[in-house]
Amino acid sequence: MKLVVVESPAKAKTIEKYLGPGYRVLASYGHVRDLPPKDGSVDPDDGFAMQWENYADKARQLKAITDEAKGASTLILATDPDREGEAISWHVQEVLRKRKALPSDVQRVTFNAITKQAVTEAMGRPRALDEDLIDAYRARRALDYLVGFTLSPVLWRKLPGAKSAGRVQSVALRLVVDREREIEAFRPQEYWSVTAVFEQDGVAFTSRLVRWKGQKLDRLSIGNGSDAAAAKAAVESGRFSVESVETKPLTRNPPAPFTTSTLQQEAARKLGFSASHTMRVAQALYEDGAITYMRTDGVQMDHSAISAARGAIANRYDASYVPDKPRQYTAKAKNAQEAHEAIRPTDFGRDKAGSGDHARLYDLIFKRALASQMASARLERTTVELADQTGQQALRATGQVVLFPGYLALYEEGRDDEADEESRRLPRMHEGDGPARKSVDSEQHFTQPPPRYSEASLVKKMEELGIGRPSTYASVLQVLKDRDYVTVEKNRFTPNESGRLVTAFLERFFERYVSYDFTAGLENSLDDVSGGRAEWQAVLEAFWRDFKPKTAEVMEQKPSEVTAELDIFLGSYLFPEKEDGTDPRACPACGDGKLALRGGKFGAFVACSNYPECKYTRRFAQAGGAEAGADTGPVSLGIDPETQLEVSKRTGRFGPYVQLGDEKDAKRSSIPKDFGAEVDLEGALKLLSLPRTVGAHPESGLDIVASIGRYGPYLLHDGKYARLQTTADVFETGMNAAVVKLAEAAAGGGRGRGAAKEPLAAFGDSPVTGKPVKLMEGRFGPYVTDGETNATLPKTADPSTMTADEALMLLAERAAKGPPKGKKKAPVKKAAAAKKPAAAKTEATAVKAAAVKKAPAKKAAPKKAAAAKKPAVKKALAAE
């Protein structure tokens, strides 16, 4: 028997079906071990020796692989065809070697698509593990560990509130912060455009003023409204005719099939997918055999795929859409050994796969790959200049006509910027024509700052600079979001306060290690390792030689010294020059104190040098000396008539609040956003009086309470909640309204939450159960059921094309696996009833006791979840 190891169970199931008898295919479920998150996992003093630790949640998979390996004649490692796949194979081999279960014959096979032909052909050409790729993996993993576990503790101790730093993560964050600085430094410039609408042969077109008073104009030439009005008047008074018509042929070639990077960019532009979601969906399509491997730098397709694509084009369109020769694409891959075939469908006869996001992404991949082998589009670009009778004023209109659509009939690449005026259509015109002027307009504009990065443009920029590698971009961007270093709004990245501060710290104290050139150069060195041109330990030694002393030097500095350095480094950002020439560091509260950066328990802030006499503070993120939201200390609102304690308004870490008295355990209440900016004594006392008892419920007799919680205003009765719309409702809702709202909440808000859903399709009665077989929409996607067994559809299956035979097959396969894991334990728990005679319990008591004993079993789930999160903890510190 031959044992084949792959990553995923879906992949294992498909491949075992292709290979047939004599093969056993098991899944490792990804990586099986990693560097433990503790000091000493990588030892620079011992040749960067690494101490690997098996994932606790992979024990069952490893045991199954070990048991099968002991009786196998051959071990075939068939993990993904990239560096990570090579690493997983190496880890599995090393684990089996330690357990003395490694077969004498070990083979490595790779395939770019999970199809029967690709798999069987790969099995016929095995090779040994690629030591260069394994060394490159070890070098990257060690670097990420050393940077994370050396730099992150420096951040924690010297920069409160910072969470982590990473070799690639921190440089990607710097890109986002640098763009924000460009936006803040940008000063808009006013300019005006003058346009005229003409009509020729019933077709209207727009032209732009390009010459005025005999002078050529550029975009910023007309800088004020009075000049614009004069230019507009000149156009209105002139008689314009066509001075010249210039027509140029234009050919647009199709883009190459997708690489990992271009797929992430285009899915972000056209589908609104995040990079991580794109990769998850693509992974499912790959495992289902719909597309080729989705982590690749290659842009070329296999010869057989090119032939299939050309045939599909001929079937779909006429022969003119098929170019005379197959198109060949080349890319400057960072490493030839890591460059595979481009991402494409495995079958060009299959134009649809899956449903939902899977179907949308497959459609994008299919069209891009097919278009890459289609004929070029032929267009005609036309430029028409119109001049008045004096020749002093001239207008220009540009546009293009599609003569032959070619690949544009199927696919057009998305753009980060808006289409320009050249894409407009123009009517046919000749020299001397006098089109009719319809209107003249002048419009004010202001120059715009560079846009914030979207996922697509940030991925593109990282790839251009050589920062990281396409296969890591999704995880790097996700780390920035998870650490709360950035906020993503309308698919644009904005750095948060913590992200800006961490970047400033790294730029000041570790400038070399967050520089774009250094990071790109390190990536090239790692590529040299995977290409066999460099030794991995030598690359690590060169990095560690300078990095370790630098971190030790910064660690010796006091937090106050670090803050003082950052105060100077960020001076122009925090305290920019004022227009009136006054000192930007002068305290606006006391007048004679100086503002400076300070470090606190929850991060950095700006404070007055006269503290504690002057309690003025300002959040670090309020750049440019902004005073809105600044805290000048407690503001007295008056005296509470009941307690005779002072009521004050204050500002804390989570925003403004009111407080009764000055004791440590003084009563406090946050000020809701809809309560009003100006809170008086009456309003403060109302907030401090919460929770408010509405009264006793007429049915239960228990109190109904109104208050404000973490998620807003609410009603509470007998442990059940009902949401209120506004803060005012907390104080105004009466008994009748409260009872109605609680009843509606208990009934699911009146939406009929418990109502049965209609089936998506029906397939008649099951020959096994005799009950109807139905296709239903469930919480986790569509599934089929026969009343006793539920079978989830594969992610890439299309529910609209599901047949009765396919539904019965899915149900049979699910039934063969036995009941779900959670249900297997139920009969075992009944064994507790065996103690019944000894305790002399009644039957009812025994049943109740058995039910109580089930509680500890449920607690096992959180432990398992904690174990599953262990790899994530490791990545938190050593993430790229």
TrEMBL record:
<dbReference type="Pfam" id="PF01396">
    <property type="entry name" value="Zn_ribbon_Top1"/>
</dbReference>
<feature type="site" description="Interaction with DNA">
    <location>
        <position position="144"/>
    </location>
</feature>
<keyword id="KW-0479">Metal-binding</keyword>
<dbReference type="Pfam" id="PF01131">
    <property type="entry name" value="Topoisom_bac"/>
</dbReference>
<feature type="site" description="Interaction with DNA">
    <location>
        <position position="483"/>
    </location>
</feature>
<dbReference type="InterPro" id="IPR006171">
    <property type="entry name" value="TOPRIM_dom"/>
</dbReference>
<keyword id="KW-0460">Magnesium</keyword>
<dbReference type="InterPro" id="IPR013825">
    <property type="entry name" value="Topo_IA_cen_sub2"/>
</dbReference>
<dbReference type="InterPro" id="IPR013824">
    <property type="entry name" value="Topo_IA_cen_sub1"/>
</dbReference>
<keyword id="KW-0413">Isomerase</keyword>
<dbReference type="GO" id="GO:0003917">
    <property type="term" value="F:DNA topoisomerase type I (single strand cut, ATP-independent) activity"/>
</dbReference>
<dbReference type="Pfam" id="PF01751">
    <property type="entry name" value="Toprim"/>
</dbReference>
<comment type="similarity">
    <text>Belongs to the type IA topoisomerase family.</text>
</comment>
<dbReference type="InterPro" id="IPR028612">
    <property type="entry name" value="Topoisom_1_IA"/>
</dbReference>
<comment type="subunit">
    <text>Monomer.</text>
</comment>
<feature type="region of interest" description="Disordered">
    <location>
        <begin position="414"/>
        <end position="452"/>
    </location>
</feature>
<keyword id="KW-0238">DNA-binding</keyword>
<comment type="function">
    <text>Releases the supercoiling and torsional tension of DNA, which is introduced during the DNA replication and transcription, by transiently cleaving and rejoining one strand of the DNA duplex. Introduces a single-strand break via transesterification at a target site in duplex DNA. The scissile phosphodiester is attacked by the catalytic tyrosine of the enzyme, resulting in the formation of a DNA-(5'-phosphotyrosyl)-enzyme intermediate and the expulsion of a 3'-OH DNA strand. The free DNA strand then undergoes passage around the unbroken strand, thus removing DNA supercoils.</text>
</comment>
<dbReference type="InterPro" id="IPR034149">
    <property type="entry name" value="TOPRIM_TopoI"/>
</dbReference>
<dbReference type="InterPro" id="IPR000380">
    <property type="entry name" value="Topo_IA"/>
</dbReference>
<dbReference type="InterPro" id="IPR003602">
    <property type="entry name" value="Topo_IA_DNA-bd_dom"/>
</dbReference>
<feature type="domain" description="Topo IA-type catalytic">
    <location>
        <begin position="130"/>
        <end position="551"/>
    </location>
</feature>
<feature type="active site" description="O-(5'-phospho-DNA)-tyrosine intermediate">
    <location>
        <position position="293"/>
    </location>
</feature>
<feature type="site" description="Interaction with DNA">
    <location>
        <position position="31"/>
    </location>
</feature>
<keyword id="KW-0799">Topoisomerase</keyword>
<feature type="compositionally biased region" description="Basic and acidic residues">
    <location>
        <begin position="422"/>
        <end position="444"/>
    </location>
</feature>
<feature type="domain" description="Toprim">
    <location>
        <begin position="1"/>
        <end position="114"/>
    </location>
</feature>
<dbReference type="InterPro" id="IPR025589">
    <property type="entry name" value="Toprim_C_rpt"/>
</dbReference>
<dbReference type="Pfam" id="PF13368">
    <property type="entry name" value="Toprim_C_rpt"/>
</dbReference>
<feature type="region of interest" description="Disordered">
    <location>
        <begin position="816"/>
        <end position="880"/>
    </location>
</feature>
<keyword id="KW-0863">Zinc-finger</keyword>
<feature type="compositionally biased region" description="Low complexity">
    <location>
        <begin position="863"/>
        <end position="880"/>
    </location>
</feature>
<dbReference type="InterPro" id="IPR023406">
    <property type="entry name" value="Topo_IA_AS"/>
</dbReference>
<dbReference type="InterPro" id="IPR013826">
    <property type="entry name" value="Topo_IA_cen_sub3"/>
</dbReference>
<feature type="region of interest" description="Interaction with DNA">
    <location>
        <begin position="164"/>
        <end position="169"/>
    </location>
</feature>
<protein>
    <recommendedName>
        <fullName>DNA topoisomerase 1</fullName>
        <ecNumber>5.6.2.1</ecNumber>
    </recommendedName>
</protein>
<feature type="site" description="Interaction with DNA">
    <location>
        <position position="141"/>
    </location>
</feature>
<dbReference type="InterPro" id="IPR013497">
    <property type="entry name" value="Topo_IA_cen"/>
</dbReference>
<keyword id="KW-0862">Zinc</keyword>
<dbReference type="InterPro" id="IPR005733">
    <property type="entry name" value="TopoI_bac-type"/>
</dbReference>
<feature type="site" description="Interaction with DNA">
    <location>
        <position position="295"/>
    </location>
</feature>
<dbReference type="InterPro" id="IPR013498">
    <property type="entry name" value="Topo_IA_Znf"/>
</dbReference>
